[in-house]
Amino acid sequence: MNLKPLIEALLFVAEEPLPPDKIAEIVEAETKEVRAALKELQEEYAKAERGLQVTEIAKGFQLGTKPELAPVVEKLFKGEKSYTLSQAALETLAIIAYRQPVTRVDMENIRGVKVDGVVDTLLKRRFIRTVGRKDAPGRPILYGTTREFLKYFGLKDLSELPQPALKE
Fold this sequence. Notes:
Layout: H1 3-13, H2 20-27, H3 31-47, E1 52-57, E2 60-65, H4 70-76, H5 87-99, H6 104-111, H7 116-124, E3 128-133, E4 141-145, H8 147-153
Antiparallel strand pairs: 1-2, 3-4
């Protein structure tokens, strides 16, 4: 059977981005074949005058709306509660994303303020997680970003983070 309809159906019903190896396992095909079918689907959706696209995000693939249609789609969800990240949360998240693994003390030294509340919020929203302990006195907790972080910011992986601007 043609893989594309199977993959398309899986992407349609999946709530999370699906990694190619997971898709291959489900459809009982080689990962290489699945990757080729995903690429074809991406190209077909990109060419067609449709409102959907196949996007590689958070180390997986997802079926979603095209960005240029966001204003129309947002009207559907108008009034629903959504959340944005505070400036403090964005600053702390940037430190973690670029410096991970990183401790609270490291974050506080960079920001110049306590980060306890912000780190707790980022943990609750699953943008960060504990990734271990530093081999130092007190064995402080080390933090890193999660797949939820990648999804929220629309990144395939950390290599897609913008390069920090250098101060002259």
